[in-house]
Every structure is written in structure tokens, then in C-alpha cells.
Design a protein that fits this description.
The chain is mainly α and 370 residues long. It has a domain of 255 residues. The chain is built from 14 helices and four strands. Helix 5 crosses helix 8. The longest helix is centred in the N-terminal third of the chain and has 45 residues. The chain is elongated, with a radius of gyration of 37 Å. The termini are far apart.
Length: 370
């Protein structure tokens, strides 16, 4: 019995030595794995809120926000406001253009955190802009499509507007009591004078006292919009290139963009933040969608449509109508013809005289001696 206990003890000791040896052999690998995990935790800690792009559509990006409005109420409010706006603006009725823009937008919506359906329409306006209403009512200006160099730039602005709706910025502002009525804030991409025209056309004004919140909302929409672009397959740097294009306009006409972004972060700030978010949140990909041949076709079709539209000043010009010929007019014409015949005969006689008599202009000019 004693020998049996001793054999078991020796066997356990040997097993322990073997396991310890294996453990010591794996220690460097374990250290490396632990180091990688710590680095990942540090990198994740630097990422902004709601940066889990793999979980887009299943995450709750509205967690922690103050919002007392239900989705049903938000949709109903947006629908009422959309009806009011559509009485004041002119929509593009070309089915091909509308189908294309709607398809680009719905692809972005499917790769977003949207909890409401989207209705997307194209507005006939030269302003480089787009705006979204609470509840998913989304309008894209024709001027924006014409200003975009490729489909990814158009998608960048559309993704930004979709992010406004998914983050429920309108409902959140109303819930905080910062606006008397949610109908006062179509969430406009550019803001300022460019967006003011739309607000004014529909009788809507944004109180300037709430600009600080708008800056925060714009920063969040920029960040989420980049993620939706990336998830859909577009090149997220197109959003940066579009901002840089706006910045070039500022350089061409100083002071313009400062006014346009009076209720939004300055262009330089937004560009820097976009680049930071791309670097921190979005992993590199081998290829992205930049543009399509269909985008170029739609852009050309829209440009042709815009060119056929009469200018406002021309449409207000008076039109002239020729008087119909009457019997009196015939008599006047006959009398005029007789006079013309006599005038021709007189002219011929004068020409004959001119051949024999030199003109005064042909005579030499005499200069008297002093």
C-alpha cells in the first residue's frame, strides 16, 4: 500500500514537471498575445463612440440621448412637414433620375442604423445642398448632383443626411425643448444662407440660439455618415474631397463658407475630423466604389434637363404678336411699292449724273500759301 501511494505521488510529480515545462515553453507566445490584446484595448479606447462598424444596424446609437418622442410620432411629424415643403418647392419628375437617386440612397439606408423607412426625392434647385426631415423624408437638390464629381461624393452627402435621421437629431432637439416646434428644423447639409433659401421658401426658420447643439449633431452625422459609406462599399475619402471642394470655394470667394457653416463646424475642422475618423474607425480595403457609368449618365441627363429650363428673367419677358394682314395693309403695301419704284428710277438718274460729274470728295484739296 505504501509503495502504491509512493508510485502515485511520483507520477503526479512527473506530470507536474511536464506541464510546467510546457507552460514555460508557451510563455513568450502568451506574452505576445497578451500584448496584442492590450494594444487592441488601447486602440478601442481611442475610438469615438459608436465605432463598431461590424455591428451597424444592430447597435443602439441613441443610447443615453434625451428623447421623449416615439418613432411613430416622429414619422407623422416628418410627413406633415414634408407635405408643407412640397407645396413650396419644385420636384424633378424625371423617373430615371428619381429611380437612380432613390436607389443610391436606399443602399445607404440598408447599411445604416435606420429604424424608419426613407422617402427620397430630387428637388429642382441650383443650390449645392440636401436636407432630411425627421422620420426619413429626404430631399436631394439637383445642384448637389451636378456639383459632385463622382457617385461617392454624392453618397457622402446623402450618408450624412441619413445619419441625421438615424441619430434622431430632430426628435432629440424637440425633446430637450430647444425648439418650440420640430417643424422648424429641416436638417440641412450646408446650413447658413445656402440652406436658408429652403427654410424661407417653406416658411421655416431655425433659431440661432440653438447653434451649439447643431455643431454637435453635425459632428455625429459626419462620423456616422463615413461609416455608412464604408459599409455600403464607397470610398469614405470622397466625403473629405467634397469638403475640400467647398474649401476651395471659400478661397475663391473669402467669407462665403464662413457664412454657410455658421451653424456647423468650420470646414477646416470638419476635414480634420473626417480624416481622424477614417484613420481610427475604418480599416483599409483593397478596393472601393468611387463612381459608376450610370452616375455620369444621370448627371448628363440632369444637366440637359436644367439647360432646357427657361431662365426666370426670360420667362417674365413680354411676348410680341404680329398683326394679321388687312385690306388697308394691302393698299398701304401697294402704295409703298409704287413709291419704291419711283425712288429706284430717280436713283438710276442720279447714278448717271454721278458718272459725268465728279463728286466734291474727289476734288483736290488746295492749301493756300501764307
Amino acid at each position: 500500500m505504501i509503495f502504491k501511494i509512493a508510485r502515485i505521488t511520483i507520477a503526479l510529480a512527473c506530470a507536474g514537471l511536464i506541464f510546467n515545462a510546457v507552460g514555460f515553453a508557451q510563455t513568450p507566445q502568451q506574452k505576445e498575445e497578451k500584448k496584442q490584446q492590450e494594444e487592441k484595448k488601447k486602440a478601442d479606447a481611442k475610438k469615438p463612440k459608436d465605432s463598431d462598424i461590424d455591428n451597424i444596424g444592430n447597435r443602439n446609437i441613441n443610447k443615453g440621448s434625451i428623447n421623449f418622442m416615439s418613432l411613430e410620432k416622429e414619422i407623422a411629424t416628418g410627413r406633415e412637414l414634408a407635405a408643407e415643403i412640397e407645396r413650396e418647392i419644385k420636384l424633378i419628375d424625371d423617373p430615371v433620375i428619381n429611380e437612380y437617386v432613390n436607389r443610391v440612397g436606399q443602399n445607404l439606408v440598408r447599411n445604416s442604423d435606420a429604424k424608419v423607412p426613407f422617402t427620397i426625392k430630387v428637388v429642382e434647385s441650383d443650390e449645392v445642398n440636401a436636407f432630411a426631415l425627421p422620420g426619413g423624408f429626404f430631399y436631394v437638390n439637383s445642384g448637389l448632383i451636378l456639383a459632385a464629381d463622382d457617385e461617392s461624393e454624392l453618397a457622402g452627402v446623402m450618408a450624412h443626411e441619413i445619419a441625421h435621421v438615424t441619430a434622431r437629431h430632430g426628435a432629440e432637439q424637440a425633446s430637450k425643448g430647444q425648439l418650440i416646434n420640430i417643424a422648424t428644423i429641416p436638417l440641412i447639409f450646408l446650413g447658413g444662407p445656402a440652406g436658408f433659401g429652403i427654410r424661407q421658401a417653406s416658411g421655416l426658420l431655425i433659431p440661432m440660439t440653438f447653434l451649439s447643439f447643431n455643431r454637435k449633431a453635425e459632428a455625429e452625422a459626419d462620423k456616422l455618415g463615413l461609416q455608412y459609406m464604408y459599409k455600403t462599399g464607397y470610398d469614405p475619402t470622397a466625403a473629405v474631397s467634397f469638403f475640400e471642394k467647398l474649401q476651395a470655394k471659400e478661397k475663391a470667394k473669402p467669407g462665403t463658407m464662413n457664412k454657410l457653416f455658421s451653424s456647423h463646424p468650420p470646414t477646416d475642422e470638419r476635414i480634420a475630423m473626417e480624416k481622424t475618423n477614417i484613420e481610427l474607425i475604418l480599416p483599409d480595403r483593397e478596393q472601393y466604389v468611387v463612381t459608376t457609368s450610370e452616375f455620369n449618365k444621370i448627371k448628363s441627363q440632369l444637366a440637359a434637363l436644367e439647360n432646357r429650363r427657361p431662365a426666370e428673367e426670360e420667362s417674365n419677358k413680354p411676348t410680341l404678336r404680329r398683326r394679321t394682314t388687312s385690306t388697308r395693309d394691302d393698299d398701304d403695301n401697294k402704295s409703298t411699292k409704287d413709291k419704291d419704284v419711283k425712288a429706284d428710277e430717280s436713283k438710276k438718274d442720279d447714278e448717271k449724273t454721278e458718272k459725268t460729274d465728279p463728286k466734291e470728295d474727289d476734288r483736290p484739296v488746295l492749301k493756300r500759301r501764307p
